User: What shape does this take?
Amino acid sequence: MAAVESYPDDLKYHEEHDWARIEGDEAVLGITWFAADALGELVHFEPPQAGATITKDSSYGEVESVKAVSDVIAPLSGEVLEVNQKVVDAPETVNLDPYGDGWLIRIRMSNASETDALLDVSAYKTVLADQ
Assistant: This one.
């Protein structure tokens, strides 16, 4: 069963439907409920390797669903510290819990000021209203 639509207040959002949970100089990244719902049941997650560098606004991996393959866009730049192996093994975890067990990667941010360009929940909901 898919998760109920939600957009937690403590996250920062990217207009490409990705989220970031900022934890000091690190961030946990994932895709929003909207993205998971639009894609449908995820069947594959192609993550970056730990140690790789990702760049804000660029693709860092792919998610594949029964409907489509989609790039995952980095809301922030940094070094990949950890890949969520649970999602690699069971991609549908993202559909069930996009903000909890369904996170995708953890990074060490290379430029913390990039968080200033991300959206808060009300600004992100405005983006959704325009979809």
